Amino acid sequence: MGEYYQRNFMKSSVLIVYAVFLPGIAFGQITTTKVAPKVEISDKAPYDGTKNFLGEDVYKYVGQELYLKGVSEKLRKFGYENFVIDYRQDGLINKLNVYKCCDSYNSKYDALAGKYFKVLDVIKHPKAAESEFVYGQKYFLKLQEKNGDTVYFEYDSRFENSFPFIVVGFFEKQKQLVIGKDFVFADEILKSSTDIQTGKVVTTKTGQKWKCTDLTIEEEYYTLSLIIVNSVGEKTTISCDSVFGKWRRGRAYFGEEADSYRSKFGSASFDTILQGKVRLGMTMEMCRLSWGEPKSINETISAAGKTAQWVYSDNYLYFTNGILTTIQ
Question: Taking all residues of the chain, what is their mean pLDDT, rounded to a whole number?
Fold first, then answer.
């Protein structure tokens, strides 16, 4: 019996010791931290005429005059989208809210083509609070037509091709940049171009210079275009996108720029670039001008130097220390 109490006493003593010396078990506390919403800092600089489509800088349109471009003949039956009388109503559902309805569900082409509008205000899309994903980057331009009508145009800051206007300030700025200037174009740009006076295919020669005599909207696809003339008096048009757009690199050069490249690379190499070709011994810069940016680049550094593989849709270019060594 004494042994029983002794054993239990010893067990109790051990438990007490553990209870005294066992480190305390602490439970973590989950906290929340309030984060201030992102402050949208708008660009306060005034509209400078360098861009026609402003994306998220939409508020810079306020005070600007817009010209509504025409469209090719086969598209005219569809009219113009996104012009409404009341921006708080859905013009796609309510025809009565479509401004100068209707070609299909859209505004009549003949009633709006070639009109000028002044931007009075920019309004965030009223449904933006309901669905940021769908409407968060949409706005309404409050416009006043020259006859006094007020109308709203739904503007999507993501899609340039949905903006049917030319900003008059942009047009004037481009005229200053191009009229009287010489240009040299890659051969492919002027391929099959026709003389606007005779309808005949113009004479083209690699590296020839063309002088810009005017800026206009050509009446086939209604793109903003340069009127250019060559040394024999032939006139044709070339779109501003080809001269200033994202595909411009390697396709269009101001005259002084072309002279600089010809001096830097040599006439034969620069003509090869204008022809859209590459040849062994060309530098990476030459190849970029001729073929544009590759889809991907794979590089290797070894004792022999730096090698690179440029991957295009149907071809591979291989460089050693920056010089083209293999075309595949």
Answer: 88
Whether residue 217 lies inside any domain: the answer is yes
Question: What are the E-state strand segments in the chain?
Answer: 65-68, 83-84, 101-103, 106-107, 116-124, 138-145, 150-156, 165-167, 182-185, 209-217, 224-229, 235-239, 252-254, 296-302, 305-311, 316-320, 323-327
Task: Say if residues 267 and 254 touch (Cβ distance below 8 Å).
Answer: no
Contacts of 129 by beta carbon, 8 Å cutoff, 6+ apart: none
Predicted pLDDT of residue 171: 96
For the chain, the domain total comes to: 3
Q: Is 273 exposed, middle or buried (0-12, 13-18, 19+ CB in 10 A)?
A: buried
Q: What is the pLDDT of residues 103-142, one digit of tens each?
A: 888 999 999 999 999 999 999 999 998 888 889 999 999 9
Instruction: Say what the pLDDT of residue 34 is.
Output: 76
Based on the fold, state whether residues 161 and 220 are members of the same structural domain: no
pTM strictly above 0.85: no
Which amino acid type is present at position 5?
Y
Angle at 30 between CA 25 and CA 35, to 5 degrees: 155
Domain that holds residue 140: 58-166
Rounded distance between C-alpha atoms, residue 143 and residue 123, angstroms: 11
Q: What is residue 17's predicted lDDT score, i.e. its pLDDT?
A: 47
DSSP-assigned letters across all residues of 33-93? ---PPPPP----SPP-SS-S--TT-GGGGTT-EEEE----GGGGGG-BSSEES-TTS-TTT
